[in-house]
Design a protein that fits this description.
By secondary structure, the chain is an alpha+beta fold. The protein has 18 helices and 16 strands. 63% of the residues lie in helices and 9% in strands. The two termini are 74 Å apart.
Length: 702
């Protein structure tokens, strides 16, 4: 089925892929639920239009391949989403909302998901379907599905392994990489030495060791922070107790002063009657009180206003005292919450440390497997060497046989030459001794031929041969000699060595020599290429890790400077992590940021302002690694509120000595901290734009 899909992708550009490959759950806990909702649609193939779908169906029929479901994007008409289902609350979400996908494939995803819901627990699913009576398909994260009709099933029929289909593209990619690596290993043979493998494993071990050390340092710093927070909490508690004692003392003093003021008022009334009695008679009033009612009414009003103001003042002071004590209590509560979060983080760090130890054991097991593979390769090489040695031995044996036959041929030639020399010496001796050798002198002798063109008289031969005068006897004697001659010639030919195998052997030896030479050259080139590749890979990894480590170490500090405040002096937390420790430059980098008082979330779930601050922290951290002459920032404060605008502008101002920045902004709280302003306006008199500049460095901050 995988091969059929790959072939269709190659033949028809409109084939996009399986639906499970084009979308994925935003969180791992939704994998099983979404797989149950999609059901058979998980393996549906998405195409651009109906024509492509028809061509693919025809292709599958011709190839007699498996059946498949096709989703043409141009003709799909999914049902509209019920927006009311998004407001059910709790952990209930639309299935479409927990998926990540390209907007191009939205019709196919919406067609498969529909208005289906996902939730964390089965109780929530029952409540939505049976109590609130929403006739929709709903599935819990454990795979339990409630159909529209109310029928409940225990997830998919294939069990929990169905959720693993989301990891199928990644698994296929890993298998392909494994096959490629195996092919490279087979091609290179012994190109990768034990030393290189050991260095690679040592590098991975040291990297894991550094990670453990970093986690231990984080654990120690967190533990130290917890101690400091506990001590600070005790100090604040003691200060609160001291303030409460002072407040009680002040209350007692105020009561005493109020009683003394009442006594002073009574004495004052008596003195007024005594002193101003004559004045009242002269003024024509019954008493001083009546005079005050008539003539000092305004003074009383002013006095009442003064008293009212004093009362308001006391209320404000008491409210201020209450708010201060309340702030202290809230600060203590926040410190306790921060302490609990730090304890949770410490526990998480310990779990990560245990995970790293497990990974270390896994690496050791992989090292053992690689060593076994190396031993198998060595055994294979030894068998090949043994076969090569056997061929060399056979070649040597053939050469020895050829040499023996050559020696035998040379011996026969020497024997023949010796016989001829002996014949010549006998003839010469006969001539010297004047011994006449009988020869045939008749005309028939001219027709007879011998090897040396000499005719001898064989009358001295034995009678049996000499008396053979009949044709039959002569024929029999001739046949006998011919048989003996053929036998001798056959023996000579059988004994004489064949020179043609020697030429063939020379040709084979030349080919073997050339092949060995080419093999040595290829192995040398492969070794040189492997060494060059390892050097480049090592240099590339070192450069990448140098940049990554410096930025990763700096980004948390920069993010804290951008997010800290008086209420949250520690600021937020930001960190970078690699998706792959083995080949970091071939994989992605994860960037996570946690603003103050916020729990951990993905970057996509943060607000626009929070993502802006995180992006600026990453930008300024990169600047520490490789500074730029200046920055040009176009309305980076568009998504920021006034508080964050002030933090960002203050940070840029603090970096002014080594960071030149040109900012385009419409917020006065940002550009009021600049060294100079440049403004563009329209001049209606000439119907053109004008530029205004203002140097703020000559003015104070006020």
């Amino acid at each position: 089925r995988v091969e059929s899909l790959a072939s269709m992708k190659r033949l028809y550009p409109g084939v996009k892929g399986r639906l499970s490959e084009l979308c994925s759950p935003s969180q791992g806990k939704y994998k099983e639920a979404v797989a149950v909702i999609f059901a058979k649609m998980m393996d549906a193939i998405v195409v651009d239009n109906e024509k492509t779908a028809s061509e693919c169906i025809s292709y599958l029929k011709e190839q007699r391949a498996c059946t498949a479901t096709f989703l043409p994007l141009s003709s799909l008409r999914p049902r509209p989403l019920d927006e009311g289902l998004r407001r059910l609350g709790g952990s209930v979400k639309l299935c479409i909302d927990v998926l990540k996908f390209d907007t191009v494939y939205a019709p196919a995803v919406r067609y498969a998901a529909g208005n289906a819901l996902v939730c964390d627990t089965l109780d929530e699913a029952r409540k939505i379907r049976y109590e609130q009576r929403h006739a929709v398909k709903i599935c819990s994260t454990d795979g339990t599905l409630i159909e529209k009709s109310g029928l409940m099933t225990g997830g998919s029929s294939s069990g929990p392994d169905r959720g693993k289909k989301w990891d199928r593209p990644k698994l296929d990619g890993l298998k392909a990489k494994r096959d490629e690596a195996q092919q490279e290993l087979d091609a290179l043979g012994q190109g990768l030495s034990d030393r290189n493998q050991e260095e690679e494993l040592n590098r991975q071990f040291h990297s894991a060791k550094k990670s453990v050390q970093g986690l231990e340092q984080d654990f120690e710093s967190t533990h130290e922070t917890i101690k400091n927070m506990t001590a600070r909490k005790q100090e604040l508690t003691s200060e609160i107790k001291a303030l409460r004692r002072e407040v009680q003392k002040l209350d007692k003093d105020i009561e005493k002063r109020i009683s003394s003021v009442e006594e002073s008022k009574n004495e004052l009334e008596n003195l007024r009657e005594t002193i101003f009695g004559d004045f009242a008679e002269k003024s024509g009033v019954a008493s001083v009180a009546e005079f005050e009612d008539r003539f000092v009414k305004r003074v009383d009003m002013l006095r009442e206003q003064l008293i009212q103001l004093e009362g308001n003042k006391s209320k404000i002071e008491s409210e201020l005292t209450y708010q201060r004590s309340r702030d202290l209590e809230s600060a203590v509560q926040k410190k306790e919450e921060s302490t609990s979060r730090l304890e949770q983080r410490m526990q998480t760090i310990q779990e990560e440390r245990a995970s790293i130890v497990d990974n270390k054991e896994t690496l050791r097991a992989e090292l053992a497997d690689l060593e076994e593979t190396l031993e198998d390769a060595k055994k294979t090489l030894s068998s090949v060497d043994a076969n090569f040695k056997e061929l060399k031995q056979a070649e040597k044996q053939v050469q020895q046989d050829i040499a023996e036959k050559r020696k035998l041929k040379m011996g026969l030639g020497v024997s023949l030459e010796q016989l001829k020399n002996k014949e010549d010496s006998i003839l010469m001796a006969c001539q010297m001794e004047q011994v006449e050798i009988p020869k045939i002198e008749n005309e028939e002798a001219d027709d007879m031929e011998t090897d040396d063109a000499k005719n001898y008289d064989f009358s001295v031969l034995p009678r049996k041969l000499r008396d053979a005068k009949s044709e039959e006897a002569k024929s029999a004697a001739g046949q006998n000699f011919e048989v003996q001659e053929r036998t001798l010639k056959a023996d000579l030919e059988r004994i004489a060595p064949n020179l043609r195998p020697t030429d063939h052997l020379d040709e084979i030896q030349a080919r073997v020599t050339q092949i060995n030479k080419d093999f040595d050259e290829a192995r040398t080139r492969a070794t040189e290429a492997s060494e060059a590749f390892e050097e480049i890979r090592k240099e590339r990894t070192e450069r990448f890790m140098k940049c990554f480590n410096q930025i990763a170490n700096k980004i948390d500090e920069v993010y804290k400077d951008l997010t800290k405040s008086q209420a949250y002096p520690l600021g937020g937390t930001a960190y970078l992590s690699l998706e792959s420790q083995e080949d970091p430059f071939l994989s992605g980098i994860k960037f996570n940021a946690m603003p103050p008082t916020k729990r951990f979330r993905d970057m996509e779930q943060l607000s626009g302002g929070e993502r802006t601050v995180a992006a600026l922290a990453l930008l300024f951290s990169i600047h520490y690694f490789r500074p730029s002459p200046f920055f040009v920032m176009d309305e980076i404060d568009a998504a920021l509120d006034n508080i964050n605008v002030g933090k960002v502008s203050s940070y840029i101002q603090s970096r002014a000595p080594d960071l030149q920045t040109i900012v385009i902004s419409l917020k006065d709280s940002f550009y009021e901290k600049a060294d100079a302003l440049v403004g563009i306006h329209r001049d209606h008199s000439v119907d053109a734009s004008r530029v205004l500049t203002l140097d703020l460095s000559q003015y104070g901050e006020e």
